[in-house]
Design goal:
This protein is an alpha/beta fold and 229 residues long. It is 31% helix and 27% strand. A hairpin with a 4-residue loop joins β9 and β10. α4 crosses α8 and α5 packs antiparallel against α6.
Length: 229
Amino acid sequence: MRVVAVPCLVDNYAYLVIDGDRAAVVDPGEAEPIERALERERVALDAIWLTHHHHDHVGGVAALVAARPGLDVVAHVRDRERAPGVTRAVDDGDRVGAARIIHNPGHTLGAISYWLERDAAVFTGDTLFAAGCGKLFEGTAEQMYASLARLAALPPDTRVYFGHEYTAKNLRFAASAEPDNPDVARRAAELREPSTPSTIALELATNVFVRAPDAATFARIRASKDRFH
C-alpha cells in the first residue's frame, strides 16, 4: 500500500490509498485534482472513503461517481443521508478493505477514521490534525476528548494522514499553551509543507489537545484555540 496526498480547495488534503493498480480516495473535496492524480499514478478508482459529511470533504463525490457508475462510497451510518452518493454505511469496528473503522464523534457526530493496521496508517479527517484537532461543530468536548484518546492509543509509529494543512498555526498555538515544551519548538523549527503525514508519537509529544489530562482541560484548551489568531 502507498499513499498519495492530493491537495484540494484552499488547504484540504484528499488521499489516494493505492494497492497495485487500484485505489480508494479519502475525502475528495473536489474531483479535478483527484482525476489528475489518478492519471498521473496510473491507477483506477475503486472506492471513496469519507471521514465526515462536510462539503469541503465530499464536494468531488458526485463528479467522481458520475464518471464511474456503481462506485463504492463509504461513510458513517449517521452520514448516510448527509453525504452524497453513499452506498455503504459503516460503524465502529467495521472493516472496509484493509481498513478498520474508528468512530470519532466530536467534530461531527458521524466522523470516522480509517485505520490500516498492517500498513501503520490512519486517515483522521478533521478529528486529529498535526498538532491540533477539529472544532466541535456537532459533538461535545467529552466526545472529542474520548475520540482523540482512542487515536492516541494507536501504535506510536502509525502515520497520521489529516484533512487540512493547519500545522503552522496549530504549532503557534501549541507554543503559547506549552511554552516550555522543547518538542513543540523543535517541530515548529523543522516544519516543512506539506506537513502530512504526522505520527501518533509526534502527536503525543506536541499536540496540546492529545496531551490534555482530562475532558475539562481539553474543553478549556479548545475554547482558547477558538479565540486564537
